Amino acid sequence: MVLPEEERGGGVFRAPAELLREAHVPSLDKYRELYRRSVEEPQEFWGDIAKEFYWRCRHTGPFLQYNFDVTKGKISIEWMKGATTNICYNLLDRNVYENKLGDKIAFYWEGNEPGDNMKITYSELLCKVCQFANVLQEQGVKKGDRVSIYMPMIIELVIAMLACARIGALHSIVFAGFSAESLCERILDSHCSLLITADAFYRGDKLINLKQIADEALQKCKDKDAPLRRCIVVKHLGREELLSDGPSSQSPPLKRLCQSVQEKKAESSKKGRPKIPWDSEVDVWWHDVMKNASRECEPVWCDAEDELFILYTSGSTGKPKGVVHTIGGYMIFTAATFKYVFDHHPEDIYWCTADIGWITGHSYLTYGPLANGATSILFEGLPIYPDVGRMWSIIDKYKVTKFYTAPTAIRLLMKYGDEPVRKYSRKSLKVLGTVGEPINPEAWLWYYRVVGEERCPIVDTFWQTETGGHVLTPLPAATPMKPGSATFPFFGVVPAVLDEAGEELEGEAEGYLVFKQPWPGIMRTVYKNHQRFETTYFKKFPGYYVTGDGCKRDKDGYYWITGRIDDMLNVSGHLLSTAEVESALVAHSAVAEAAVVSHPHPVKGECLYCFVTLRDGHDFTKNLMEELKKQVREKIGPIATPDYIQHAPGLPKTRSGKIMRRVLRKIAKNDRELGDTSTVADPAVINHLFNNRCETIL
Ligand code: PRX
User: Fold this and answer.
1) Which of 154, 401, 532, 611 is most buried, by CB atoms within 10 Å?
2) What pLDDT, on a 0 to 100 scale, did the predictor assign at position 264?
3) Residue owning the nearest CA to atom 2 of ligand 1
């Protein structure tokens, strides 16, 4: 039910009555009551949630101990230290044996091609995870070791990560869109001794020879005297046995789509498969090592504060940070956020479209859903392949009830109009979610009206790799929604808005978004660099965790994220640092200097506008532009491909030589309202750049 415009109180939308009836948190008052308890009595609140899990030993010391203030000593955060558990046991064994969910589907896998699908139950998943955990142990992987995972979206990826968790090893997953150089950098930083990858996969109709990229990365590691002992390779493209039928009730448009794709596939497979490079000293096939592995594996019991995984995220210096999450706090936080934010119920079919290579895929495709015994879709493909109705066809096919995606995907699909959506049934949908970047109200309303048929609340979840899970978010039945606002804090999270001087602002305000106390899922450190952790998040405003985002709080207390306030930008929901792209550009022999700024983009949200100054003797040709784009793709990955490259014979700088990015952002937008330019060393440079702007996307 949508309230009429005049009753919405400034564009407020509410959940329909049916949703309230069965909701875990059915009203704003109930949310407030639980929130108050979570903040005033964290031990009791989180202690109750922890009781749903299995603990080998309960904690002996304090439930929570922390220091958030750098001026008082080392930043430290410990939840339930001294308790022992195993997260894999809690996700699988507990669900199979205690909750009797062995026959429940854990994942429906939907491949890149419609018609390629598989499913796996909780018991089957447990069995495969135990087998692979034994494989890892046979390869010498022990508690505390790091394992690098570079894989497409296939079930073996989940198996690999849970097998690491079962034996207390840390997984470090690298998104399969990253380049060899990025993979190598991450393997070296976390000292991984083993890599798990796949032969190859299709992203839409593009073949990605993943093993070849992985080999290039391993060669680079070898050159730096850090050879990797073993590489385990899943035969994915070359799988012989495919695959079960999945839900049989296919709608007519989906059946037609499947047929035409199968015909195309049969034709292309005649062309043969790519050659997979192989080094028999290092490489082994997944299916070979799994063949004789035992299906039982005793979990390794770990401290709640032992490290669970490392996940790299962009840092403003250009070098990615290895964000470290620990076992106990992350487990209860991802479990609780998943349950409340998606209002999870046992019969739900849940679909999160994120790749497991990002934090959303860790927390809300793997750990949170499995901790709740949920059934999820794991989708390998792309939103508009083989046609623009693919997402809606999957919702219809599996009767998805809860759907979680990114604003960039919504904006992309919105471009194709309502017809491809309406072709498929969305009757099953109950809750919609977004993550990764601010959602513009136009996209929000389209998602709400066309996709959700004005029946489904939208949870706009604000969080970060560092926060482990949702920190500002509506609860679907409780929170009246305002399009574009992430609304209120989740349980246990205490936000504040600070001004430049670090003063807390009250009521309606705009400033820096910070958090005042830890919640269980907050990161604990930067891998092997605690000082960087302290400097990045706790130094600017002592006593607070600084998000790096700006925000507004309106008169009703709603939070609205206004975007990054550091040198980071968010391309299609993926965080990049301008410094990272600049260093990729200046690594080219023709480039003397580069400055990269964020620029608005209708689908990606933000994109990269690059200014490059060339060395003497080089001309700014089309060819060079292509080389520079290629260079960035090779150094970082396709997500960082520049959209604009402008030749800048000079850059606007202060007299002390600092590049004025504020001015460059205005030039990129052709906005001549430059504000104060009195500190620019050479003002003529600005005019030149305005007159030679890049008008079109490359
Ligand atoms: O700028 C915020 C934006 O994404 C950043 C975190 O990026 P990352 O660590 O890659 O994690 C993305 C997935 C959780 C934040 O600092 N961001 C994330 N969610 C939202 C958002 N901005 C506005 N609204 C959101 N819902």
Assistant:
1) 611
2) 65
3) 437
Residues 6+ apart with CB under 8 A from 622: none
pLDDT in tens, 601-617: 999 999 999 999 999 89
Q: What Å distances lie between residue 105 and 101, 121, 154, 248, 373, CA to CA?
A: 8, 4, 15, 15, 9
For residue 515, what pLDDT is reported?
98
Helix (H, G, I), strand (E, B) or coil at 155: helix
Map residue 454 onto helix, strand or coil: coil
Q: Which of 472, 561, 566, 568 to mutate to test the pocket of ligand 1 (most atoms within 8 A of CB)?
A: 561
Domain boundaries in the chain? 572-691
β partners of residue 489: 472
**H-only helix segments in 276-389:** 286-291, 327-341, 359-361, 368-371
Listed in sequence order, the residues at least 6 apart from 357 whose beta carbon sits closer than 8 Å to its beta carbon are 173, 174, 175, 176, 177, 178
Low-confidence residues of the chain: pLDDT under 50: 1-9, 242-246, 248
What is the predicted pLDDT for the residue at 675? 82
Q: What pLDDT, on a 0 to 100 scale, did the predictor assign at position 274? A: 79
Contact 665, 597 (CB under 8 A): yes
Residue nearest to atom 11 of ligand 1 (CA): 464
Return d(Cα 572, Cα 409) in angstroms, integer.
Answer: 8
- Which CATH number is 572-691 given? 3.30.300.30
Q: Which of 359, 458, 570, 580 to mutate to test the pocket of ligand 1 (most atoms within 8 A of CB)?
A: 570
Nearest CA to ligand 1 atom 15: 464
For residue 3, the model assigns a pLDDT of 38
Atom of ligand 1 nearest to the CA of 473: 26
Residue 660 pLDDT: 87
Please list every protein residue whose CB sits less than 6 Å from any atom of ligand 1.
Answer: 313, 359-360, 435-438, 460-465, 486, 547-549, 561, 564, 570, 575
